[in-house]
Amino acid sequence: MPRPKEPSLLAPDDIRLLTQIGFLAAGQADVPRAERIFGALAHVRPDRAFSHVGPAMALLNAGRAAEAAQQLMRALPQLAPGEDADTASALCALALQMEGRTSESTRLLRELLHNAPSGADNDGLRLARRMLGEPQAPASPPPLSP
């Protein structure tokens, strides 16, 4: 018999606030604080990119691109397909590029774009296209006026 899902201890607004605080720490390259905050968030939202991207951003800002890439590679199988996985993949490719591993970065970006559903567009895919110098997905046509 399946176990009932435990209620989250954090409300969505609490998660949003902690995420913002975590990204402030990441922006200051405060790796220990970012890891503590996002580690806690990973317990309540393990399949979301922000709980993995935050510590990786802290590592990148601290000049530790190789560690950021390793961390994101480990996280990728846990992430929800679509925007979350796409964002982490593109950031991982950025970390690889910053580490001087250009061919691995390019391969990851090309795989990401190749595997994306036709017409898909999100932050991760846009970053991948920019990094490869490819055109962005066409914008949706404006609605017709009556």
Observed structural traits:
64% helix; 146 residues; Serine Threonine Protein Phosphatase 5, Tetratricopeptide repeat; mainly alpha
Give a description of the structure.
The protein is mainly alpha-helical and 146 residues long. It has a single domain, classed as Alpha Horseshoe (Serine Threonine Protein Phosphatase 5, Tetratricopeptide repeat), CATH 1.25.40. Helix content is 64%, strand content 0%. It has helices at 12-27, 31-44, 50-61, 65-75, 83-98, 102-115, 123-132. α3 (50-61) runs parallel beside α5 (83-98). The longest helix is centred in the first third of the chain and has 16 residues, at 12-27. The termini are far apart.
SSE diagram, text form:
Layout: H1 12-27, H2 31-44, H3 50-61, H4 65-75, H5 83-98, H6 102-115, H7 123-132
Please trace the helix and strand order, writing H or E for each element. HHHHHHH
The name CATH uses for the topology is Serine Threonine Protein Phosphatase 5, Tetratricopeptide repeat
Largest sheet: none
Portion of residues in helices? 55-70%
Low-confidence stretches: none
The CATH architecture term is: Alpha Horseshoe
What percent of residues are in strands?
under 5%
Ends distance: 54 Å
Tell me, briefly, the overall form: globular
Mean pLDDT: 89
Whole-number count of domains: 1
- Per DSSP, the total helix count is 7
CATH superfamily: Tetratricopeptide repeat domain
Quaternary structure: single chain
Brief synopsis:
The chain has 146 residues and is mainly alpha-helical. The protein is 64% helix and 0% strand. The N and C termini lie far apart (54 Å).
